[in-house]
Amino acid sequence: MSAASRASLRSNRTRRTFPGPRRAALLTAGAAAAALTLSACSSGGTSSGGGDTNFVLGKDGIATADKGERADAPDLSGKTIDGKQLDVADYKGKVVVVNVWGSWCPPCRAEAPGFEKTWKDLKGKGVQFVGINTRDTSTGPALAFEKAYGVTYPSLYDPTGKLMLRFERGTLNPQAIPSTLVFDREGKIAARSLQALSEEKLRKMIAPVLAEK
């Protein structure tokens, strides 16, 4: 084999180690889709259990505040996605679970069945679930979401996120979608999660607040 032929063969082998245009395009598209999946349901914001905060972040990602260290829940009132009027303050005396969600959010879809099952099991024990639907530009997708996943508890319609902004910064405020908060019977914020919850984690989050006297 001539020197020219050997050089040509080495060149061809080198070129074959790189993906072709179509494969490169697929890899790029796949990476973009993965990044979108990871970031689409986050609204930013950071907080922790250190500094001047009055809560502790557990290893399970659930932050809790002791009695006497809890912030008051803000005014959460307005129209629900089915056009009714709702004021979370009317549930004072019950443990209230507030879930911030959007029909466009994959983790929200994943956690919805567990939330509905837990709600059905606990509503007779002094627990009230309330959703806050956000970033849906109309109520149609939100209503379709509830029908698809059999969600029966009410959800306030908050397309611009104004209800989320009513929570005081530095407290157990919602900072992502989904976020879940547990209010104690006095209407104070006792626990928070900034991630999708399995049914097991949701029950674990509610149980200590429900057990309080």
Average pLDDT rating: 82
The largest beta-sheet arranges its strands as 1-2-9-8-5-6-7
Q: Helix coverage percent of residues?
A: 25-40%
DSSP strand (E) fraction?
15-25%
Which structural class best describes the helix and strand composition? alpha+beta
Order of helices and strands: HHEEEEEHEHEEEH
Radius of gyration: 24 Å
Number of E strands: 9
Number of helices: 5
What distance lies between the first and last C-alpha atoms, to the nearest angstrom?
89 Å
Biggest sheet statistics: 7 strands, mixed
Overall form:
globular
Unreliably modeled segments? 6-40, 44-52
Question: Summed up, what is this model?
Answer:
The chain is an alpha+beta fold and 213 residues long. The protein has helices spanning 3-16, 21-39, 106-122, 139-149, 199-211; strands spanning 56-57, 62-64, 77-79, 85-87, 95-101, 127-134, 155-158, 179-183, 189-193.
Primary descriptors:
7-stranded mixed beta sheet, TlpA disulfide reductase family protein, AhpC/TSA, 5 helices, alpha+beta, single chain, 35% helix, Thioredoxin-like_sf, signal-anchor, 213 residues
Describe the protein:
About 35% of the residues lie in helices and about 20% in strands. The protein has helices at about 5-15, 20-40, 105-120, 140-150, 200-210, and strands at about 55, 60-65, 75-80, 85, 95-100, 125-135, 155-160, 180-185, 190-195. The strands form two sheets. It has a seven-stranded mixed beta sheet, covered by helices on one side. The protein has about 210 residues and is α+β, with helices and mostly antiparallel strands. Strand 8 (about 180-185) and strand 9 (about 190-195) form a beta hairpin. Mean pLDDT is about 80; it is low at about 5-40 and about 45-50.
